[in-house]
Amino acid sequence: MRATVVRKGEFRVEEIPDLVPGPGQILVNVTRCGICGSDLHARVHGDDMADLTGATTGYQHFMRSDQSVVLGHEFTGEVVEYGVNTRRRWKPGTPVVALPILRHGREAHLTGLSAAAPGGYAEQVLVQESMTFDVPNGLSPDHAALTEPMAVAWHAVRTGRVSKGRTAFVIGCGPIGLAVISMLKAAGVRTVVASDLSPRRRELATRCGADVVVDPAVDSPWKAAPKKSIMNRDPIDLINSGFDAMAKLRRIPNVPWWYLFRAAHTFDIRPPAPVIFECVGVPGILDQILAAAPAMSRVVVVGVCMQPDTIRPAVAINKQLELRFVLGYDPGEFRDTLHMLADGKVDPSPLITGTVGLEGIDAAFTALGSPEQHAKILVDPHSSKTAP
């Protein structure tokens, strides 16, 4: 089959051996595959990422620069053939999406990020039947291919535990930031403030539903929040609020006021504070957010920073900030995201800014290096387009 292979950072369209589904696997004809930011990282920093994942997670199969690898983990396609030990749930030709993870025996391989699991920059891809879902409601291949990145955003939003009345900040409006904005609005969050230096990305953030969009070189996103009282609060304000509350409580005779504090801890009742999504992933951003965040904010780190970084823990401690890191999604979140797309609860179309064929992937990677035009470029293995 034809595939675009990367080796030592260079792309080539090649004929590679046809894939054969193993136990529990399905062979799928790829109809679309999204280009992810992690693909851009893996092309250049594959060895660093392999060293990191091996040392921190025990996963030893991440691609290395001297290997020939077919990238692409945001794919959709049509069922072709089943391997042994499958339930053959769907007829050939059925549109499906799948979690990009493949099993060889007891070893797991990240599809599109391991030499042992070729990805979706190809005419065909292998998927695990147990991790595969049929595409409902006639959802288009363009939108179905975005199930994977939108599931990443949905996991981040769920981890952030953003109630509808809380203000959400999205710092960085690249593809993952835009997906987070879309999912926040799908979750019913009423106020989403987005911040990015790029005019193009700010435009896309508005199209994805952001209520306030800010150029951080001109205006502070924190000052742009509609709820000024929350954003202007600092630890001293909280202390004074505590004095005022205690003065009122102690005036009420025979009331065990300390029970109220115990109940607040039990049910996690606290003064309203924003949830901040860091979607940039470059050194220095996280520390800037910690310094600017209002007291008791929750910071969800979605952007992947591949370089060493420095934060000042005392800043977060003094404000009692909550810091959460997120990765990927679970199968339930993946399935729910697919149905949110198919039911029209989320519109991913603002993210899609171009399409190329296998011969155009190198040009697409170059184009994605600039934030001023593209957000998400899709690969159509049957297209002859060489530029997005």
From TrEMBL:
Statement: the UniProt record of this protein carries the keyword Iron-sulfur: no
Pfam family, one: ADH_N
Lineage start: Bacteria, Bacillati, Actinomycetota, Actinomycetes, Mycobacteriales
Keyword terms of this UniProt record: Oxidoreductase
Superkingdom per UniProt: Bacteria
Domain Alcohol dehydrogenase-like N-terminal: 22-136
Identification of the protein by name: Zinc-binding dehydrogenase
Keyword Oxidoreductase: yes
Segments forming domain Alcohol dehydrogenase-like C-terminal: 175-224
